[in-house]
Design a protein that fits this description.
Distance between the termini: 32 Å
Strand order of the largest sheet: 4-1-3-2-5
Structural class: alpha+beta
Order of helices and strands: EHEEEEH
Radius of gyration: 13 Å
Shape: globular
Number of strands: 5
Number of domains: 1
Length: 111
């Protein structure tokens, strides 16, 4: 399965995940958190949906656009995978975070 992702580091990423949870009624789609380093939060969105959008500073789109190489760490669905964890695990095949909702929430939160 292919997907894009948007990375937001630190507490801003965690706040954005909680905001997306509230907007989406409790299930925003798959979100991965990292417990060390930059403490990144990765929002998994549909393939090709991050390209050409005006992401605010602090939100980094990760995709396979021409000339780009992106790395998105993904934890196992079960068992220990520290420092990675599912903040919101995938629920059904093809279910992703809604890109436009994420963009508007990120713009509102990050400026």
């Amino acid at each position: 399965m292919q997907f894009d992702a948007v990375r937001v580091d630190g507490e801003e990423g965690r706040r954005l995940a909680l905001l997306m949870e509230a907007i989406a009624g409790g299930e925003p789609g798959p979100v991965v958190t990292e417990a060390n380093g930059r403490r990144a939060v990765y929002f998994l969105v549909p393939d090709g949906s991050t390209e050409g959008r005006p992401w605010p500073a602090g939100a980094t789109p990760l995709n396979a656009a021409a000339g780009r190489i992106s790395y998105v760490p993904i934890p196992a669905l079960s068992g220990r995978t520290w420092p990675l964890a599912w903040h919101f695990p995938p629920t059904t095949p093809g279910r992703f975070v809604h890109t436009l909702l994420l963009l508007h929430a990120a713009t509102s939160l990050l400026g």
